[in-house]
Amino acid sequence: MSTAKQRFTLAAAAATFASLALAATSLTATAQPRTDLVVGMALEPPHLDPTAGAAGAIKEVTYANLFEPLLRVDADGKLIPGLAERWTVSDDGLTYRFTLRPNAKFHDGTAADSADVKFTLDRARAADSVNAQKAYFAPISKIETPDPQTVVVTLSRPDGLFLFHMASGDAAIVAPESAATNKQKPVGTGPFRFDRWVAGDRVVLDRNPDYDGVKPKLDRVTFRFISDPAAQVAALKAGDIDAFTLFSTYEALPEFRNDPKFTVTVGSTEGETILSTNNARKPFDDVRVRRAMAHAIDRKTLIDGVLYGNGVAIGSHFPPHREGYVDLTGLYPYDPAKAKALLAEAGYPNGFDTTLRLPPPPYARRGGELVAAMLAEVGIRAKIEPVEWAAWLEKTFKGKDYDLTMIAHTEPLDIDIYARPDYYFNYKSERFNALNDELNRTQDPAKRNALYGEEQKVLAEDAVNGFLFMLPSVTVQKAGLTGMWVNRPIQANDVTGVSWK
Amino acid sequence: MRRRLPLSLHLGAALTLLLVAMALLSLLWTPYPAEQVRVIARLKPPSAAHWLGTDHFGRDVLSMIMVGARNSLAVGAAAVGLGLLGGVPLGLLAAALGRWGDEVVARLGDLVFAFPAVLTAILLTAVLGAGAVNVVLALALFNAAVLARVTRGAALAVWRRPFVGAALALGRGPLSATLVHVLPNIAGIVVVQATVLFAVAIVNEAALSYLGLGIQPPSPSWGRMLGDAQTYLFTAPLQAVFPGVAIALSVMGLTMLGDGLRDWLDPRHRSSGVM
Question: Looking at beta carbons, which residues of chain A come within 8 Å of B234?
């Protein structure tokens, strides 16, 4: 009996000691900041090659983390060195000279030199290129590589946005050895390298030990894909996700704001959300009809109803946070009576029937429903037609066979799309095209901003599309995480500067 | 002697009548226009002004449920009606023709059954575009196949009975025999089946609208109300309750009505009763 008791006491003491020791180790463990990160995203990328697809999710995983373009866009939208450590532009704006980082290497160990840059740019502008932004590379006429560290690019015409475009994910530098397999097994030059991809669930990156630039604080980044809004909220609450970017379940934000365990940031994106209008099709070819629609839409109610107030109204195709912005939101105040009068003047006293095609994102599906209700009040009976992305791209974007649709244009500084002759708005304006030509010839920032202002005014006066609001960049993250981007000047989840307190 | 009606028939008929009454009432009156948006009054819990609260655009949930009932019934009635028009004659024809005619109808039925109704509907809406009409067509196709099979089976059993043989021997043609002798004897089975299919059609319509393929906004649909409510499960859980209850009660009512009718009309039951 007594021995058994003694043994028991001994065991208890040992257990106490062990648990104390454990507690001590776990204390030291918590004192050490975490070095891993789990980022939540709504959409899974279809593949991981940013130079071969338009899906934003590809860039949201790879940009700056895995792949590097020649230049990069930082959290504030400024151009900073990427694979090129410095660059110069000739006075006529036609010759660009990039100097690459001397010790840059791809993740497979091969050197990243001027030949890789030439290969990348030639591949992107080739006739059979599958790059989603081929137009970015169209001005290039010649690429020379005088030495392994220097690339000289000559343009056939000035392009004020060339450097900006060379900083996009579409211009990520890839190697000839791995270009063909980047979709499944991406090989870049960035501070993180590809570890694995569990289809339907996550992509895991780990730190690139041979990175020649500033080393990131994190050693492991997991991107998890959760499309269901309720599951997104649940995963955040359960602590499975450290930061959810481009969070669009806006109605759940008050809860996270009131919870000290979380931080909510609301920033800007480049996503001008518009009611795209087929300017070539009756009755939308009449500017009075387009202006009537502008008067019929109450942007404040729309922003309240769709974004729960987390968004800014726009009056033209330009984001308020950029230089050169002109506030035109007051041009067509919400005024259903005025809208009806304009419709009557255009010959539609009883309104008309039309179709509003909506792609899948919630801002479009929900927003479209509200816009249709507002248009109905002035007599424009819009039949709602929900479509999947593939069908939307095929019929609406490429086929230009539509009346109205609702979409966020997320490419940065994309006002030039209104000058493209075969863009899906079917908008043709000599005035706008002249301004855009001048903009392309102009390097001086102040003059450029003035021209941007003129362009915005032309678009607003013509009421080309219904200009609605800027899509917000909402991030819900655990308190203690620092360095996540607040704004989204480019499609990216750049985590190279992220760390735990 | 009067037979007692089954309890399920009472309950089912009551629930179905409630559904129909709500749908008919919505033609004349709803508390608010079902499509009226008022963002400022969104996601309100039930109150005296809004008995079942408001949805994420501030629309009155009760009004939406009422108009939704009408939409559900319309889709169900059209899907079952077209199914009856297509399926019953086909089934009768198969039974009357026998042999290869029978074979053709049976194989066509198998073809339809190879795909679940919802999948067929998704396929059809993907090709022809989303909307109530295409949903009705898809569900009607499925219903026609089911009804053809049920009709054929029941009709074959009647054809083997002596009085049909006697009628034929007396010079009645197959068409006349089908109309005079076969159809009245299988009517009960077909009605029961149609009632059950009605319930299935309501569920399927809700499922398709939930996926965004069925009835299109602004017209309310129970399925889409459920779909919209999904994102509010944490913030406003009541949003999902009312359309969910509406679907459940309607389907329960129609299924019980079908069960009750079956018990009541069952020929075995009948032979032990008055006949």
Answer: 230, 233-234, 252, 255
